[in-house]
């Protein structure tokens, strides 16, 4: 495999793009118009991983069987402490078997995790 694209189904694509760009500085690498007039926006996490954001209303209309699928993601960052201080709703930092980590909600209230990069 050369690349991994993680698909996230969100209420408001523009709001979610702004969130991921504001806190994680993810660049937009593609925007694709969709049949319902919404757009799919792809952000780069790193050289081999992308986040692909789709409107939940589009997924409900065209692929309802996957609408409630939510990946469990842990992102590792050298900016661990900064992100903990900056992200709204960040949970307490915990030591998970030697890995410092905390959770945070995206604009839709879906929780993801940040681990301290070593």
Structural topology:
Layout: E1 4-10, H1 13-24, E2 28-33, E3 39-46, E4 49-55, H2 56-62, E5 74-77, H3 80-86, E6 94-96, E7 99-105, E8 111-116
Parallel strand pairs: 1-4, 5-8
Antiparallel strand pairs: 2-3, 3-4, 6-7, 7-8
In short:
With 118 residues, the protein is an alpha/beta fold. Helix content is 22%, strand content 41%.
Describe what you observe in this structure.
This protein has 118 residues and is of the alpha/beta class. Helix content is 22%, strand content 41%. The protein has three helices and eight strands; from the N terminus they run E-H-E-E-E-H-E-H-E-E-E. It has helices at residues 13-24, 56-62, 80-86, and strands at residues 4-10, 28-33, 39-46, 49-55, 74-77, 94-96, 99-105, 111-116. The strands form two sheets. A four-stranded mixed sheet has the order 1-4-3-2. The longest helix is centred in the first third of the chain and has 12 residues, at 13-24. The two termini are 25 Å apart. 14% of the residues are buried. The model has no long low-confidence stretch (mean pLDDT 97).
Provide the gyration radius in Å.
15 Å
- State the share of residues found in helices, binned by percent: 10-25%
Number of helices: 3
User: For the largest beta sheet, what order do the strands appear in spatially?
Assistant: 1-4-3-2
Order of helices and strands: EHEEEHEHEEE
Quaternary state of the chains: single chain
Q: What's the pLDDT, averaged over the residues?
A: 97
Low-confidence runs of at least 5 consecutive residues:
none
Largest sheet: 4 strands, mixed
Strand content: 35-45%
Structural class: alpha/beta
Number of beta strands: 8
